[in-house]
Amino acid sequence: MLLRTFGILLSARDMDLIDLLCDDVEEKIKNFCNVSQVPKGLINSAADNVCGAFIRRKLLTGELEGVNADEAAVKSYTAGDISVTFEDGINTAAQRFGRLADKLENSGKDRWVCFRRLRW
């Protein structure tokens, strides 16, 4: 549902990727915390991490619909004697989705420590 709120439509193939990413994030959390199941307090963090990883993979493969990684952010355009000025900063759709993926992939990782158990 979180991916849909960002306007990302999912196919059956995407669901397979999401299943793989869920397993990956689950293993990372379980290994970091040294537990056999993902703690209930980290479920939302795990969901954010999966969404971030999904967006990142789709961006890297160029499969994120409506997002062109090659597009440039044009700040201004003048027709007479052609003058094009590009915007500095993060303004293209691909850059914004990349930044969103970063935030989601790192979301809640500071809370993982609270659920960590010592290994004996």
Give me a quick take on this structure:
This protein is mainly alpha-helical and 120 residues long.
Describe the structure in your own words:
By secondary structure, this protein is mainly alpha-helical. The protein has one domain (2-115). It contains 4 helices and 2 strands; from the N terminus they run H-H-H-E-E-H. Helix 3 runs antiparallel to helix 4. The longest helix has 22 residues, at 12-33.
Please report which band the strand proportion falls in: under 5%, 5-15%, 15-25%, 25-35%, 35-45% or over 45%. 5-15%
- Portion in helices: 40-55%
Order of helices and strands: HHHEEH
| Strand order, sheet with most strands | 1-2
Q: What's the average pLDDT?
A: 82
Characteristic terms for this protein:
single chain; 120 residues; mainly alpha; two-stranded antiparallel sheet; 4 helices; 2 strands; elongated
Task: Write the topology of this structure.
Elements (H helix, E strand, L loop, with lengths): L1 H4 L6 H22 L9 H19 L12 E5 L4 E4 L6 H13 L15
Antiparallel strand pairs: 1-2
Helix pairs in contact: 2-3, 3-4
